[in-house]
Design brief:
mainly alpha, MetI-like fold, 2 domains, 15 helices
């Protein structure tokens, strides 16, 4: 009798579901499993990102550490990551035997001029393609985008003959003047951002007596800081790393930018790797500093320009 009563009570409990005391336990166990799953997922993601970061940064770290090694230690096998003897001899030799500071200054001046020219010309072209009303602007935009398909190697020889005709060989004009004529990438980037600015703002300013120039200056430019910074950083880095055009148009050593200077340093007899690593480190540091300061604007500018509008 007792057994049947106990069995009946147990069956009633099972059919009634968990008691008040059992439900919090099950809920807590479920939450613990969810939290544990999220922690494992986040740990896996961070481990993968850390591995990718190490792979990407390892050449830069190797370059930096090798620049402090004496040459005989660079040549030894098996190679070592950390220098056994820390020395600034490679930096001293590069700065003493070559006008490397002049190379850096040349690259700085050229890159600043190219960046300013690109920002001015691309901003005006993008504004005209977005705000002004005229026939054929979509066709013009497609033609501009089509220039991205033409490699520099295809136009290199004709441009060289043009520059030689106007007497611009061995000057910086072939490197700087084309930037003031715009480029397809910058026009596309700023046009995408300008399309997201409400046209009603410009029309309201027009009703108050503003012309297109003032609308461009006081409405579109202040609202495009992120995109301008992103385009400026990308343009500066590309100009700093450009080697083909300066190699063609510049022959004077005192006018060479740092990219050509590195090639010139490498071409002087057998390569002295500690010198090359020291020169490469000095050429990379300004770019790392610039990108570190402007990375937030680069990401936000690219995001805004790439958003579906």
């Amino acid at each position: 009798m007792r057994t049947s009563t106990r069995t009946r009570i147990a069956l009633e409990r099972i059919s009634a579901g968990p008691t008040v005391d059992e439900r919090p336990r099950r809920r807590g166990a479920h939450l613990s499993s969810v939290v544990l799953g999220r922690l494992l997922t986040n740990a896996s993601v961070y481990a993968l990102l850390t591995l990718v970061a190490v792979i990407v940064l390892f050449p830069i770290i190797w370059m930096f550490l090798t620049s402090f090694k004496p040459e005989h230690e660079v040549q030894q096998y098996p190679p070592t990551i950390l220098p056994k003897t820390w020395t600034f001899g490679a930096y001293d030799q590069v700065l003493t035997l070559y006008p490397f500071v002049r190379f850096l200054v040349n690259s700085l001046l050229i890159s600043i001029a190219v960046t300013l020219g690109t920002l001015i010309s691309c901003a005006m072209a993008a504004f005209a393609l977005v705000y002004l009303r005229f026939r054929g602007k979509e066709v013009i935009f497609l033609i501009v985008l089509g220039t991205l398909l033409i490699p520099f190697a295809a136009t290199m020889v004709p441009i060289f003959f043009e520059m030689s005709k106007v007497g611009w060989i061995n000057t910086w004009y072939p490197l700087i003047v084309p930037a003031f004529l715009g480029n397809a990438y910058g026009i596309f980037l700023l046009r995408q951002l300008f399309r997201g600015i409400p046209r009603e703002l410009g029309e309201a300013a027009t009703l108050d007596g503003c012309g297109p120039v003032r609308v461009f200056r006081y409405i579109y430019l202040p609202l495009s800081t992120a995109a301008f910074t992103a385009l400026g950083v990308v343009t500066f880095i590309n100009s700093w790393n450009n080697m083909i055009a300066p190699l063609i148009f510049v022959n004077d050593q005192n006018m060479m930018p740092v990219a050509v200077g590195l090639a010139y340093l490498n071409g002087q007899g057998s390569a002295i790797w500690s010198w090359l690593m020291a020169a490469s480190t000095m050429s990379v540091l300004p770019l790392l500093l610039l990108y570190t300061l402007g990375q937030h604007y680069v990401v936000s500018g690219m995001t805004l320009a790439g958003a579906d509008r």
